C-alpha cells in the first residue's frame, strides 16, 4: 500500500471521528437521565440537583460542569462542589459541606474556618459562642481555633464558650463546671489538660498554663 493510500485512509478515519464528535456534541446522543450525589448530609439531594442548573434530558456532553458546580456551591451548607460526567447518562456531583463547629445567638452557624455560613438548627457537637466575639472578628476566629483543638467527644461535653477578649475564653460545661482556657495559644497542650481535668473533681479549672493547672 502506497504512502498516499495510507494518508488517505488516516484522513478518512479522522474525518469520521470529527463527524462523530460533532454529532455527539450537537445532538443528545448521551442524555442526562440520573444524578449521583455524594457527600451531602445537611442539604437535600433534590436541592443539589436543582442548584446545578442541569435538567434531565439535557445533552450530557454539553453540560457545563464548572457552572453546575458553581451553582451547587451557592447552597448555604455547601463549602465546595465538583461535577463530572459518567457516561452514558449520569451526572456525578460531589459535595463538601461546612462543618458547623460553633453557633451564635439566633442559631447562626460557624464553620472550622470561622465563617458564618447559614442560620439553621445547630447540629450535635456544635458549641455556642457567647460574649464579645463579633462576626468576622479575630476573637471569633480564635474561639473557633480553640474549639477545633478539642476532639468531638470532649466538645460534646461543652455547653458554651464565653469570649471576653483575646486573652479570656472560658468553657461552660454541660455539668455546670467551668474551664478557663485563656488565649488561643498552645491549644494542643491545653486540649490535653482539658481532657485531664474533666476526669478530676473540681468545679472551676484554669488551664491557661497547661503545665500549671489550678482549681478553685
UniProtKB/TrEMBL annotation:
Organism encoding this protein: Corynebacterium striatum
Cited Gene3D superfamilies: membrane protein fhac
Entry-linked InterPro entries: Cell_div_FtsQ/DivIB_C (IPR005548), FtsQ_DivIB (IPR050487), POTRA (IPR034746), POTRA_FtsQ_type (IPR013685)
Subcellular location: Membrane
Residue ranges annotated for the POTRA domain, each copy included: 30-98
Keywords per UniProt: Cell cycle, Cell division, Cell membrane, Membrane, Transmembrane, Transmembrane helix
Highest taxon listed in the record's lineage: Bacteria
Listed PANTHER family: CELL DIVISION PROTEIN DIVIB (PTHR37820), CELL DIVISION PROTEIN FTSQ (PTHR37820:SF1)
Identification of the protein by name: FtsQ-type POTRA domain-containing protein
Pfam family for this entry, one: FtsQ_DivIB_C
